[in-house]
Amino acid sequence: MNDDNNARNTIIFFVLAVTLLIGYQVLVLGPAAERRRAAQENARAEQVQNPDANPGAGLTAPTEGVVHVDRRQAVSASPRVAIQTPSLRGSISLRGARIDDLYLTQYRETLESDANVELLRPVGAEGAYFATSGWTGQNVPGLPGPDTLWTQTSQGPLSPGNPVVLTYDNGQGLVFTRTISVDDQYMFTIADTVVNRTGQALTLAPFGSIRRIGLPDGAGRDMISHEGAVGVLDDRLVLEKYKDWRKEGRIVRETTGGWLGVSDKYWMAALIPDQRRPVEAEFRVTGGEENPTYQANFLGEAMTVAPGATVTNTTRLFAGAKRAEVLRGYSQSLGVPDLDNAIDWGMFWFLTRPIFLLLEWFYGLVGNFGVAILLLTVVVKIVFFPLANKSFESMSKMKKLAPQMEEIKKRHKDDPAKMQQETLALYQREKINPVAGCLPLLVQIPVFYALYKVLFVTIEMRHAPFFGWIQDLSARDPLSIWNAFGLFPWDPAAMGGFIGGILNGPLHLGPVVLLYGFTMWLMTSMNPPAPDPVQRQIFGLMPILFTFIMAPFAVGLLVYWVWNNILSILQQYVIMHRNGVENPIDGAIARLRGGGKAAP
User: I need a surface site. Which of 68, 104, 145, 407 has the fewest CB within 10 A?
Assistant: First the structure.
């Protein structure tokens, strides 16, 4: 009767666990996502655009209300210079000399779409996002501002090897020249020159500014990747998520060298001031609750420009995809510190970095990130092979001793202390460590998390195909039981709301996660049974529970875990077979051959 009660309690426990999992999705995550979407819609409806202006002290700027227009209208509202590179397309606004129209030609919004990823957006359109630079100073006549119309004095579009030259004569003795060049990746170089013909010495300071008005769609929905303010200032990494950045209001750092910008999960716009000169770097949020403007600014040290003299300041702008190889290359060639820290390596950076480098190396060998994940799994198994071997040997011995342990339990069922004493004595005689079976799993948890982080935040994994139906290792399995594994062209996530959240969450049961559940069940079946009936039933239900937990994870992570389970099963089977221990694989083989149950 006691065992029946235990079984009933175990079933109740797991029903409650699954109910809590689903309830959390429905009552907490679902409403939170709806509130975020509503807030973003309100922000768009009431947003007031704030174009860049001569920042003055602290790089502040007056707010100018702009009625939202279509993006194409916003682009056509100003004369422009085209940008054409192998990686970028867009244009520079001659009004304000802003870089504010940019697409990444090597990346698509979705696998199904041909539309390129949009990075920067002009003032006047919803969600404006742009970069500018220039000069500021007190009592300096006619500094160019956001509405200044510059003149192009060079030929053709901006492209690698063909810089654009813009000029502005303020008619009061100052002549400004802005030369913008770009490489074949994502780096702009902006040289600002001013000639003083006023007849008196002037004091000017260079500045740079990146501004994003409102939040991008989906910002802040996940907890594992960083989106918001990012930079390396005074040799220290600065990371502020949008929510914390908004709460902080203003963050100021004095630094010589370094960089700062605004980061999305895969994309970034970042300013790189002259690495030899001190600057005041600032992250600032202005505007009301419904129309925030997120700014990454720097203000350089003042320069005295004598009559007839010329001064030049050079600023670089990174605007593109956060590819580790590209970022590392810029750090080395330009002397920019830790630019690849724009990728959110996380608190386990000492694992995520080498795992990514190993994946990248394997990818260079085989040309498929899915196969690279399989090879990485083999390396992890080799590293932990001695520990896993000891663990499996210990578990095999425990399974072989299961009848003796059951006998001890029956003999001393009314004396738990004596039962525990004899069980421990049996372990000592047979040199078995019951804790050893948990060690391989425990030591692999950080590796599991680090791989999850790598798959989630590195753009190299975005839209990376494997084989067959798996065309994006960083996304969840596109097939599920709800679309009959792809027989019906239907995405459960499209339903939205309660049903969509559940079907696209813990009930997103695709073929890979079902294979994961099967391999986990097989591993559990090969382990020695727990001495307590309740524990036995709990361990028996664990594969089911973890199948639901793992269902919404990236399919690349599931590929790793399934392959890891298969290798573990093979290793454990060899050890059990060698020691003559009964196991489900030999039993299945015997039944297939018609020989009944396999002999121990």
Answer: 407
